[in-house]
Amino acid sequence: MTVELGNDVAHLGHVELLTDQFEASLAFFTQVYGLKLSALDGSSAYLRAWDDYEFCTLKLTSSPQTGVGHIGYRVASKAALDRRVAAINAAGYKVHGWHDGDESHGSAFRFESPFGHLFELYWDTNRAPSDDPSALKNTASRFTGVPPRRIDHVNLLSSDVAEFRRFMEICLGSRVTEMIKLNNGRLGGCWFTVNNKSYDLACTEEHGKGQGRLHHLTYATDQREDILRAADLFLEAGVHIETGPHKHAIQGTFFLYVWEPAGNRVELANAGARLILAPDWEPVVWTEEERKKGQAWGLKTIESFHTHGTPPAK
Amino acid sequence: MTVELGNDVAHLGHVELLTDQFEASLAFFTQVYGLKLSALDGSSAYLRAWDDYEFCTLKLTSSPQTGVGHIGYRVASKAALDRRVAAINAAGYKVHGWHDGDESHGSAFRFESPFGHLFELYWDTNRAPSDDPSALKNTASRFTGVPPRRIDHVNLLSSDVAEFRRFMEICLGSRVTEMIKLNNGRLGGCWFTVNNKSYDLACTEEHGKGQGRLHHLTYATDQREDILRAADLFLEAGVHIETGPHKHAIQGTFFLYVWEPAGNRVELANAGARLILAPDWEPVVWTEEERKKGQAWGLKTIESFHTHGTPPAK
Amino acid sequence: MTVELGNDVAHLGHVELLTDQFEASLAFFTQVYGLKLSALDGSSAYLRAWDDYEFCTLKLTSSPQTGVGHIGYRVASKAALDRRVAAINAAGYKVHGWHDGDESHGSAFRFESPFGHLFELYWDTNRAPSDDPSALKNTASRFTGVPPRRIDHVNLLSSDVAEFRRFMEICLGSRVTEMIKLNNGRLGGCWFTVNNKSYDLACTEEHGKGQGRLHHLTYATDQREDILRAADLFLEAGVHIETGPHKHAIQGTFFLYVWEPAGNRVELANAGARLILAPDWEPVVWTEEERKKGQAWGLKTIESFHTHGTPPAK
Amino acid sequence: MTVELGNDVAHLGHVELLTDQFEASLAFFTQVYGLKLSALDGSSAYLRAWDDYEFCTLKLTSSPQTGVGHIGYRVASKAALDRRVAAINAAGYKVHGWHDGDESHGSAFRFESPFGHLFELYWDTNRAPSDDPSALKNTASRFTGVPPRRIDHVNLLSSDVAEFRRFMEICLGSRVTEMIKLNNGRLGGCWFTVNNKSYDLACTEEHGKGQGRLHHLTYATDQREDILRAADLFLEAGVHIETGPHKHAIQGTFFLYVWEPAGNRVELANAGARLILAPDWEPVVWTEEERKKGQAWGLKTIESFHTHGTPPAK
């Protein structure tokens, strides 16, 4: 049953982001966006927010291209991982199999979405380094005044959102909380979750070219004010602010989108006290007509938001 | 296994609060605290916050006394309810059995904590009235500018917190996220959750007299600013502000406590973006010495916070 | 000397707004925007914010047209009023002379800008009604949880901003804190103040037709969060949100613009802790090229902001 | 006339703070509290907030003792300085005469309060260094995400507040906006301003021993949220948080008090949009009975707030 499968996967764990401007991207994430550096190895930096309990929620990897390397979800238990592996093996999607862990977690089971996005599930994980403790023992690391508290979600692009939805339901047991239904009958976008967060992954329709592209990666802030202050800091640092701060109509999230130096879109977001607690939540369905009203307070979605993704379409 | 049992119960659904000042309490909750009135029957008012998806999260009942009537949790499915009923029947706690529903939900299975708190589990529920829609279809009711977005948690008193913990784990499958360990080896308090919220119920040690007493009931706000503004409104309305706004060391919640006209303590709280996502979260344990530092920013806990509960000790 | 003349005028006192939808406009200002009704006479409503010390800061007047009726500044003393009257009489602008007061203040000296905007200066004034006291005796009226704390500024349109500037300096002793210098050498806009506020009146170039038109009227909020919450309330009330919330590059004000039912543009704004304290402040000059960057965080100014004014151009 | 004299003095310019822990105090102010270092000379650091237009608003000076060195106010013009000097020379207070300037301003006229507080008035001043520009040209220096936007006020102690008030009115032309009237007829405290800020200097009754003691020095933040976030940063840095965040009843300021390493009390404060615009403002008078209600939301004033000052009483 969907609900029980859903409980096998605990939460979005980390995203690997590829950059062809490694030094500049690392400087952005640590000095402007506000993540902490857990470790550096040959070609990757392991980053986390101040209240991420895991060692790494953003693996930033030097690469000839940009976009997303892989997406890792942590499972609810070792037994849950076994159940998920069996389900995925039976489903017919492309399976990469077991992959050695890295600085941040143990071995992981890897598989692909039909659109080339690489996913992994893992149980064994490393915790945030203990040499950076907070004065409050219920906080993962020392609070440093910067906005991102924890990883929030990732938004991927695909040419067939309905097919992507099937993949998410079968492989991760995700449920859909909101979606866009286009006039042509297609799904324009789907927002998924495996827990009480209103979403941990979104898939929206690819309007450019390419496989497995990334739309954006997002961290959560405690307050909306954190995002307003961050906007001023992005301005001072010369970061490209694409759109926001404003409030999404879908999901009601207060948002701000910028591009890190390599062109990957990153967001800061605040959902207030919103959670999906209802076990029988019916997905909210948005029509094209409703989308034409713009964002919650009327901001028109700017063109680049519909077209820009990483890696760039060729 | 605990984890799987935990998944049977979806979330705290509602709390019944008893008042011997029904009219004044109702005026407080609807005109000052900011809840919406879903319905009134003979002796109860059914109230909800603007984003509570259920018809009622606070059942306010006229009574010769104050305190808590019962605490309702909604289960994850009908099958989950059957499993919970079997587990509770087997556990040896006092069972009241099936109870007819009311304006807000279908039939419920009732049972008692060892300290006289009445609990119920239910599946069938009624939704927030549709005649008060929000402009945003993913919001349960029209936003009216008032702080409480949804019900958050309830805090009960008991003479033996360890025993209360056993009750919560067996009957609800709750897990403990934080706790106080006293120098005498007893538990001073336990914070429980059945989902990703950091807590939905707390039990702290009874320092007065009486059985089944309530410490406080809490609704969540979207932002800390909502609580600062509410403090000014409570001041203007002549409401007794007991303590706050300030930040708890335990759970890190930004809080404000007031007494409604009948003396029941109610809180507004904001947890920022904090969630318990780790499936293997180890409870945070606070010592007496750590508690002596006061709240997060040094505020000393005031005396009435340790002694006042409802109904008053006789 | 300019500085000493400047000290003769204490602050912007009130604005008279004309509406051809009196009932709807009054409902908007009292039920959505959040002003208090001090009094009603034949054709006008006298409104104020919760911390305006005067009886009226917005006089809303039923009229066949929209736009601004007059702008009132309060002087620093009776002697200061005499000095100002002498200076204005000597200046050659169109003078209307002494005008009887109304519900809100005593007799006022009236005169016109070269573009037909009617101004008045007055000393005797009435205070906010005493029957609506705050629990805090240093607050003008009872805080009701709504955003506008006090009147902030008004923005007028003129076909020659440099000429308007001369008028403001001579008649009110205003100083310019910021301005736009166009590539053609003209002033695109000027921000004026008579005190430590960074501006109390702005004049921007008229791009439509008509004399004496209003661009917008603004009240100040205590916090930026008040404006975000107001945006949700405007959305729920079906109010036309024109642009924002966002931060102006000029003056750094956090803003939100809506249209009241008759089409007059009204703003909520927050300047944080910004004040102009330097007695020798040099006006900040913005070029066309700098303006092309959009607002502070990159929002492009929308078309209607350049063209819409009241009364509508014919 | 008082009003015109008042206009001679433009604003509080800077405060010299003495520390017997120079390195630790400097680290606190630059790394935790959030000021910028403009310059260092032999024994002093010249500090400013990100939107202070002057080179220095806090002169931190190494000294065998703590407390306040001197308080500098900037005048409105050179002619205004001459008028003030004449008035002070005629008043009979202890005059130190002209004092050479320092890194931050030109020559200053120095004189003493009857309680030994050293004041100076000056016109020529240096601006914030131009090598740290903001992306917004109307902002004095680059925004760095830290709370203090500009210097706000200083609070001094004296054994006779009424006598101190006479001194402020005669020498600076200050006006009183709020005061405490004790049951014994004495003034318990007076809040002064020379401009539209609700206060730039407060004097409260000395309950310890010593002459010319400092109660606290305060910088203003843009938003209340800045203060809540700062509280977490003070906690992480092990700074002694004395009281707050909370809202003062007097002046309505949202506040947070900490002690810098040498024991001088420093505050972060936010007054929202409050300004004193009325030219005929009547001082708000608070009684002892009203003060017993505690701060605005009921917080009891803690004992050290009444007794701790610097230098420590001997």
Automatic annotation (TrEMBL), chains A, B, C, D:
InterPro entries: Fosfomycin_Res_Enzymes, Glyas_Bleomycin-R_OHBP_Dase, Glyas_Fos-R_dOase_dom, VOC_core, XylE-like_N. It comes from the Bacteria. GO terms for molecular function: biphenyl-2,3-diol 1,2-dioxygenase activity; metal ion binding. Its EC number is 1.13.11.39. PROSITE patterns: VOC. Homotetramer. PANTHER family: GLYOXALASE_BLEOMYCIN RESISTANCE PROTEIN_DIOXYGENASE, LYASE, PUTATIVE-RELATED-RELATED. This is Manganese-dependent 2,3-dihydroxybiphenyl 1,2-dioxygenase. It comes from Actibacterium lipolyticum.
